[in-house]
């Protein structure tokens, strides 16, 4: 992928997709697979918003059993299966333990019945997944002793046991978006980051493209397309603001979903479900309060998701020190054995997702049900435009296809659907990930550590060998950046083949450098020097890139919030 805004300005496309998060990237891939000449633009970097800030869970829809919503349950399970099938290097099963206390609705029998019913409703959950390590197993019930063996810190009073079910977990949410973008480019899409749609182009009452601002070159140009999909996430509605054709502007309700990375090495490969202090008021059947999760991820524990109704601008969504203190008090009040300490929180993350309504309170929440689809031809008499505001990363592939089907009703000779549920993403052509990993480690060059190679396999899948070859050709390319497991070859590859044009792109989204605690100033400077050599940056540009990246890391790193307070 090479960033070339001129390729957008000098052509007319069948479809313009605005927004390079999970939903927009999936739509561009789908459309390109259908044979449409497609353009994808993103105002920041690909996956730089809510998609990268998600809790890294791929949900199979078990929560919808409480709502009696079997359609959504089945749909979510199918989407989880699709990601396990098409991106086995980036998505794997995650076993989750739900402790049970007492009897009745809080007991093991009640929970087990519901989970066995879920198993029955999702018998086809592993269909077409060749890698058996990516299969979702059946529910398993644990005795009290087995539950305490897995999690000795569980409150033992009235504990009757636990149930284990599996969902999916992403190794790297940003790279999963990038895999969708790269797959779209491989299928023929023209993609460009840091290209912002500022307004629609019009021909009468029909949208015919967008005015685009190059946020790196400061120029503007017209991008023309027969159809436009507005998939700009929480910012999608702002493109409709101020235009009489869309009527009185009213923004939908959003939740700021937050989670926290805790510097506590996992003691189990199982996640633990914890009862929070809020309830899903739309659930028809509920055992207790809605669950939060303590999840093993790499060398850390993730805890989330914490919901708050949010009415501000998407660019201003953040977690302040007072909220962090409130969350700590809530968690330790509900689960004293966690004994979470302020200094353990190394990073805070949040993103906006559609919510049920604005009347929700801290204790009673009405969660968003489905993605928002707006067919502007029916809603406003505007042709050529559909808006998609995605609800959950899990549904990105499926909902992108639905949005395209809706938009392509305005296309003569409508192209048939693409087989995106069974077509591997770039790097995902893997029959057996364990076998791939074993073979790669056996051939590992001495210049690359086992941990670094494993990260290459997880982030790049079958393309890992390109980076290994580069690292084998020059010792400098195999050199690790600071104390991290990231090697120099990853930075070079990100610039040359993955459209990384800012230091933040490399640190936060192309590599694992910024995935947990601060990687260290030395690692940032090493990455910046490599980009300077490849992109011809001046010393001033390097200084600016380092400062901008440090500022972003300070906003995410909770220890910096503590210092600021």
Share of residues in strands: 15-25%
Q: What's the multimeric state?
A: single chain
Structural class: alpha/beta
Task: Tell me the count of domains.
Answer: 3
Task: State the helicity in percent bands.
Answer: 25-40%
Based on Cα principal axes, name the global outline: globular
The CATH class name of the largest domain reads Alpha Beta
Total beta strand runs: 19
Name the CATH superfamily classification of the largest domain.
Answer: D-Amino Acid Oxidase, subunit A, domain 2
Overview features:
565 residues; alpha/beta; FAD/NAD(P)-binding domain; D-Amino Acid Oxidase, Chain A, domain 2; Helicase, Ruva Protein, domain 3; 9-stranded mixed β-sheet; 8-stranded mixed β-sheet; globular; disordered C terminus
């Amino acid at each position: 992928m090479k960033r070339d805004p001129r390729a957008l300005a000098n052509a007319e496309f069948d479809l313009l997709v605005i927004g390079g998060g999970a939903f927009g990237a999936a739509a561009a891939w789908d459309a390109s697979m259908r044979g449409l000449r497609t353009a994808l633009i993103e105002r920041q970097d690909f996956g730089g918003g809510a998609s990268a800030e998600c809790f890294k869970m791929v949900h199979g829809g078990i929560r919808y059993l409480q709502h009696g919503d079997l359609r959504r349950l089945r749909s979510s399970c199918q989407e989880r299966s699709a990601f396990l099938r098409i991106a086995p290097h980036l998505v794997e099963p995650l076993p989750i333990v739900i402790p049970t206390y007492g009897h009745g609705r809080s007991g093991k029998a009640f929970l087990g019945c519901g989970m066995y019913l879920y198993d029955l409703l999702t018998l086809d959950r592993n269909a077409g997944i060749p890698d058996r390590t990516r299969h979702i197993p059946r529910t398993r019930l644990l005795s009290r002793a087995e539950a305490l063996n897995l999690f000795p810190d569980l409150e033992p009073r009235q504990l009757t046991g636990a149930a284990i079910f599996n969902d999916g977990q992403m190794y790297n949410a940003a790279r999963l978006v990038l895999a969708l973008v790269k797959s779209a480019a491989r299928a023929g899409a023209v993609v460009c980051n840091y290209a912002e749609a500022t307004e629609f182009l019009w021909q009468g009452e029909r949208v015919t493209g967008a005015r685009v601002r190059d946020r790196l070159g400061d120029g503007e140009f017209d991008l023309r397309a027969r159809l436009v999909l507005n998939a700009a996430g929480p910012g999608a509605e702002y493109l409709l603001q101020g235009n009489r054709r869309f009527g009185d502007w009213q923004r939908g309700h959003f939740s700021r979903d937050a989670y926290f990375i805790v510097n506590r090495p996992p003691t189990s490969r199982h996640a633990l479900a914890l009862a929070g202090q809020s309830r899903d008021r739309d659930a028809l059947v509920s055992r207790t309060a809605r669950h939060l999760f303590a999840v093993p991820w790499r060398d850390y524990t993730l805890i989330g998701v914490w919901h708050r109704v949010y009415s501000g601008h998407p660019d201003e969504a953040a977690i302040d020190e007072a909220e962090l203190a409130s969350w700590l008090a809530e968690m330790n009040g509900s689960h004293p054995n966690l004994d979470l300490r302020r200094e353990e929180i190394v990073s805070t993350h949040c993103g906006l997702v559609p919510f049920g309504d604005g009347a929700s309170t801290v204790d009673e929440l009405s969660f968003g049900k489905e993605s928002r689809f707006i067919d502007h031809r029916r809603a406003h008499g505007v042709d050529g435009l559909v808006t998609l505001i995605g609800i959950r990363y899990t549904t990105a592939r499926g909902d992108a296809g639905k949005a395209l089907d809706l938009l392509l009703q305005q296309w003569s000779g409508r192209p048939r659907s693409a087989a995106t549920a069974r077509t591997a993403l770039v790097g995902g052509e893997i029959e057996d990930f364990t076998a791939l990993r074993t073979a790669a480690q056996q051939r590992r060059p001495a210049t690359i550590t086992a941990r670094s190679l494993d990260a290459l396999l997880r982030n790049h899948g079958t393309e890992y060998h390109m980076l290994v070859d580069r690292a084998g050709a020059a010792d400098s390319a195999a050199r690790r950046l600071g104390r991290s497991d990231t090697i120099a070859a990853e930075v070079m590859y990100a610039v040359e083949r993955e459209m990384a044009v800012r230091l933040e792109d490399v640190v936060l989204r192309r590599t694992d450098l910024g995935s947990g605690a601060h990687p260290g100033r030395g690692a940032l400077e090493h990455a910046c020097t490599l980009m300077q050599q490849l992109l011809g940056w001046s010393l001033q540009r390097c200084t600016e890139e380092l400062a901008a990246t440090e500022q972003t890391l300070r906003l995410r790193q909770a220890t910096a919030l503590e210092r600021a307070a």
